[in-house]
Amino acid sequence: MTATLKVIVAGSGVLGASCALVLARAGARVVLTDPARLGDNASGVAAGMLAPVFEAALDPLAAPHFDLLLAARELWPGFAHSAGVELDRTGALAVGSAERLDRLEATLADLGAPAERLSRTDAEARAPGIRIGEAGGLFTGEDWRIDPDQALGALIDAARAEGVEVRRAPLQSSEACDWRLLATGADPAPGGLAPELARLEPIKGHILRAPGVAYRGAVVRGEGVYLSPGGAGVVIGASMERGAHDRAVDPAQVERLSQAGEALFPALAGTAFAAGVGVRAASADGLPLVGFSRTAGVLMAAGARRNGWLLAPLVAQVVTALVFGSEPGPWAQRFAPQRFEPGGGAY
Fold it and tell me: Nearest-5° angle of CA 288, CA 294, CA 298?
């Protein structure tokens, strides 16, 4: 009889928590460890969008990976149901000038992404209370969302139910195990365990929450700003400050986002926003590093940039296959941590 594999997962953001859950379900003995409180990471300072369509349309780094992002999104219904994560399929609406919507519509057509041009009246029905211009909106039902607070709590509860030991502590490099999985985001690899993580760039991001202000509608993608429902009130985001690793609130970013949010949703006027700051990690091509480090016994799952929530079930699937020595599937090669090195890296 084969001995049970022991895996220590460092980092309890969405990638770490999802990997811990899926590894445990596959039969591993899993320890999930993180010195920070739950949600005190980039996964918690997020809108929780599962948005392959508008991410590919609006982010040049995401566009080449639309097929992968869509495949990751397809895993979410089963994953959410099994973990007790509440999935919101209300969809997403882009608004702005006619020229902007024309450009987005053409981009999505080139990608083969489903979207529908709506009149002003129909767009207002999808996004009640949002200021919609005469150009109407561009809607997709293929972009979904979760609430990060609810979802992180559900993932940790589901992991515990599968026998995962959750510790509020840093990774102990001396603890015996078969594998260490580093899902530490923009933080340096503990003890230099995975030198490949030095390739990741930190990106500081602000989001604003409007406690008590309710919005029930599609996620709204404006020019340089988004507005999303949230369990504790409307969410406005987001800044992307490349190279910054601090979590200090910048009043200028708060002012910019609050003004843009109020312009989209007049009900926010006069709101006292709560600002949150997270630091994401990003690779040169926008995809995370997922797979084996050159350090023996170490894997990594970090650097998902704006799409950690979207990619989490797929990343967990790839990691679990690698740990157990099975075929990691058709998307794993795009995640290979050594892909930026001469000759690349293969599984």
Answer: 70
Q: Is the pTM of this model over 0.90?
A: yes
Buried b / exposed e along 154-176 (16+ C-beta atoms within 10 A):
bbbebbeebebebeeeebbeeee
Indicate if the pLDDT at residue 328 is higher than 60: yes
User: In the 3-class helix/strand/coil scheme, how is 215-265 assigned residue by residue?
Assistant: CCCCEEEECCEEEECCCCEEEEECCCEECCCCCCCCHHHHHHHHHHHHHHC
d(CA 151, CA 306): 17
Handedness of CA 278, 219, 258, 150 (dihedral sign): negative
Please name each of the domains of the chain with its CATH number: 6-88+146-199+284-335 (3.50.50.60), 92-144+202-282 (3.30.9.10)
Bridge partners of residue 219, in order along the sequence: 92
pLDDT score, position 31 = 98
Please report, for residues 13, 52, 90, 156, the alpha-carbon distance to residue 140 in angstroms, rounded to integers and kept in the order given.
28, 10, 9, 31
Beta bridge partners of 272: none
DSSP state of 3: P
33 forms beta bridges with 10, 167
Instruction: Please identify which residue in the block is written with the tokens 């002012």.
Output: 255
Q: What is the pLDDT of residues 304-326, one digit of tens each?
A: 999 999 999 999 999 999 999 99
The tokens for 87 are: 């999935």
Q: Tell me how far apart the alpha carbons of residues 190 and 194 are, in angstroms, rounded to a whole number.
A: 8
What is the bridge-based pairing of β-strands 298-302 and 179-182? parallel
What's the half-sphere exposure (Cβ side, CA atoms, 13 Å) at 106?
Answer: 6
How many Cα atoms sit within 13 Å of 325 on the Cβ side?
A: 2
Whether 51 and 310 have beta carbons less than 8 Å apart is answered as: yes
Q: Provide the mean pLDDT of the chain.
A: 95
CA distance 124 to 270: 22
> Over 80: is that where the pLDDT of 29 sits?
yes
Using DSSP, state whether 193 is helix, strand or coil. Answer: coil
